[in-house]
Write a structure and sequence with these properties.
Length: about 250
């Protein structure tokens, strides 16, 4: 991860729906632009309710040649059945992949050997550059499942991690699980350097519960104690906030 810092573009929208529509249009514009001068575009998607409006807008865009898009997702729970709708890969299929003629979709399948699965997925990711990442920021400032304290210079691309209690509580608050005890304690995740290797980053962060994390990411130190602060090391990052998540003025 580069040590140079940048000022992300911050777009402030009235509410979560407007945020998603604006982000979806921007992502679609970037995708069309990239497909105009290369045979394939490779994208990484977050799977979370905060991403739904953007992905819906993206899927509805008529001028994208999805047959030339390769999709990845950024994290997956351990211990859930392959057909469990709470698995992030299954969520992403419903939200986007089953709605467009995607060229290829590589979804994380931890199987019985998550360490081996992480290694296989890293191989798929590293086969060619990643063009676009569509992500969010966690309540605890995580990117993907890189909970604090995260290694912002992690040499791995994909790894198995333990989820912290704030992260697991967020999954309940998002409506994916009924109680924290239902939330798996381990997951496979792309690392921060893997995510920030992309050519462009679009980060959608609606909701009041994210305001402190957004404020810290934009104005605090770049530090593994708030992993999303690493977004400021990326030269082409746009962060979308609504009136509830908009950062405190500094």
């Amino acid at each position: 991860m580069p040590d140079t810092t940048y000022e992300p573009v911050v777009r402030r929208l009235p509410d979560a729906e407007a945020l998603g529509r604006a982000a979806g249009r921007d992502i679609a514009d970037a995708l069309v632009r990239l497909l105009a001068d290369r045979p394939e575009v490779r994208m990484i998607f977050a799977s979370a309710p905060s991403q739904e409006a953007a992905l819906r807008t993206l899927a509805d865009r008529p001028d994208i040649d999805w047959t030339r898009v390769t999709a990845f997702h950024m994290d997956e729970y351990l211990g859930l059945a392959a057909d469990d709708p709470r698995r992030f890969g299954n969520w992403l299929r419903t939200a986007l992949l089953d709605r467009v003629p995607i060229g290829a979709a590589h979804l994380i399948d931890p199987g019985d050997d998550p360490e081996a699965a992480a290694k296989r997925y890293a191989g798929l990711l590293s086969a060619a550059p990643i063009d676009i990442v569509c992500c969010g920021i966690g309540v605890n400032g995580h990117l993907a499942f890189n909970d604090p304290p995260a290694d912002l210079h992690d040499p791995a691309l994909v790894k198995v991690v333990e989820l912290d209690e704030v992260c697991r509580r967020q999954q309940v608050d998002d409506g994916s699980f009924t109680t924290p005890d239902e939330v798996p304690r381990r997951a496979v995740t792309l690392t921060v350097p893997a995510l920030l290797s992309a050519g462009e980053v679009f980060c959608m962060v609606p909701g009041a519960q994210k305001r402190a994390a957004v404020t810290g990411a934009l104005y605090g130190p770049i530090d593994g104690r708030l992993p999303a602060s690493a977004l400021r090391t990326h030269p082409r990052c746009t962060i979308y906030v609504d009136e509830e998540s908009a950062p405190d003025v500094r």
